[in-house]
Amino acid sequence: MRFVYDALLGNHLRGMRHIESPDRVLAVAEGLRDAGLFDDVAPGRLALDSEISRVHPPSYIAMLQREAAATSTHAYLSTGDVFIDAESPHVARYAAGCALVALEYTLTEGKPSFALVRPPGHHAEPARGMGFCLYNNVAIAARAARAHGFERVLIVDFDYHHGNGTQAIAGDGVSYVSSHAFPAYPGTGGIDDQRHLQDAVSLNLPLQARGVASEGFVAAWDLLVRDVCARVRPHVLLVSAGFDYVAGDPVGDLGIDASVAASLARALHAAAATYCDGRLVYVLEGGYHVPSIIESIGLIARATDTPSPRESGAQLSALGDMEHAALARIGATLDCY
Quick one: pLDDT at residue 305? Predict the structure, then answer.
C-alpha cells in the first residue's frame, strides 16, 4: 500500500500536552516501519487555496492564518474547540495536500493509498474548525475527485464520532455514510438523519455509545458497503479512517477489537475493485491510542494487499434494537434513491 506522509505533520501543537499529539503520526509511522509495512511512502505537498476553497471559503482560510499568526504559544481557534499555534495553518494545508497526493496516486495507478495525516478533518465544516479539525482533508479530496471528472464519490466514515463537517459538504455527486457513537460528540447523525441530496445520499448508523459487539460492527459495515455501493455505484471510494472506536481508546472506545480493521479493509477493497477500478483512498481521522492505530493500519495494509477478499461471515444479530432500526431507515432511503 502507498502511504503519503511527512514528519512535518508533527509540527502542529508540538510541545503542547494534547491528546491529538504529533505521536499520532510520528510514532505510528515508526511502528509501521518496524513492522515492514512502510516501504512505499511518498511525501505530500501543500494544498493550494484553489483546492481548499472547493470546501472552505477564502474568508475561513484567511481567518485561520490570521489567528495563528497572532498566537505566541497556542490558543483556541475562534470558531470552535480546536487548538492552534503558529504552525497550524501550514501543517493543516500539508495534511490536505497529503490527501490530494494519495488521491492523485490512486487515480493514476488504480491502487489503494493511505494518507497518514494530522490534524484530522471530518469535523471541520466549511466555515468552522472544530473537534481537533481545521481543514476537512477527505472532503477536499472528494471535491478534487469530482474536479477530475469522476461523477460519483462515496465517503465511508467509521470513526467513533460523526463527521458533521463531511456531511455538510455532501451532495453534488458526493455521498456520505457513517457509523458513530450516538449521542456522543458532536451530537449529530441521529437515527432519522438519512438524506437524499443532489445526485447523492447521506446516511447515518448511530451506535450505542456504551459500545457494540465487534461482530455486529463488522456485519453492519459488510451490509453498508455492499448496499450503498450497489445503489450509489461510486467511481471513487474515500475512507475517513478513524480508529477511536477501538476498545481502550482514551477519547472514544466502542469496545471493538482492533482486529476488525482487516474485515473492514476486505469489504472496502472488494467494493473498490467492483465499482471503482481499485480507486480506494484512506485518510486518517481519529484514534488516540498509538498501538491500536499501528495495529489497525497494519491490518488494513496487509488485507488490502491480499489478492482475494473474503466475506467476514459476521452476523447482524450481534447488534441492538437502535442499530437495527437505523439500518432499516438506511435501507428505505436507499430504496428510494
Answer: 76
Dihedral (CA of 209, 215, 221, 227) sign = negative
Contact 279, 242 (CB under 8 A): no
Model confidence at 310, pLDDT cuts 50, 70, 90, reads: low
Establish how many alpha carbons lie within 13 A of residue 217's alpha carbon, considering only the half-sphere containing its beta carbon. 31
Distance CA 70, CA 24 (A): 26
Which is nearest to 124 in space by CA: 163, 180, 151, 85? 163
- Catalytically active residues are 123
C-alpha span between 301 and 9 (Å, rounded): 21
Range of the domain at 109: 2-335
Number of domains comprising the chain:
1
Helix (H, G, I), strand (E, B) or coil at 286: coil
pTM, to two decimals: 0.97
- Domain of 130: which CATH number? 3.40.800.20
Question: Angle at CA 17, nearest 5°, toward 11 and 21?
Answer: 45
Q: Look at residues 261, 195, 267 and name the one whose alpha carbon lies nearest to residue 227.
A: 267
Environment class of 108 (CB within 10 Å of its CB; exposed 0-12, middle 13-18, buried 19+): exposed
CA 289 to chain centre: 17
d(CA 324, CA 319): 7
- Sign of CA pseudo-dihedral 306, 303, 241, 7: negative
Q: Which one, of 57, 195, 203, lies nearest residue 124 by Cα?
A: 57
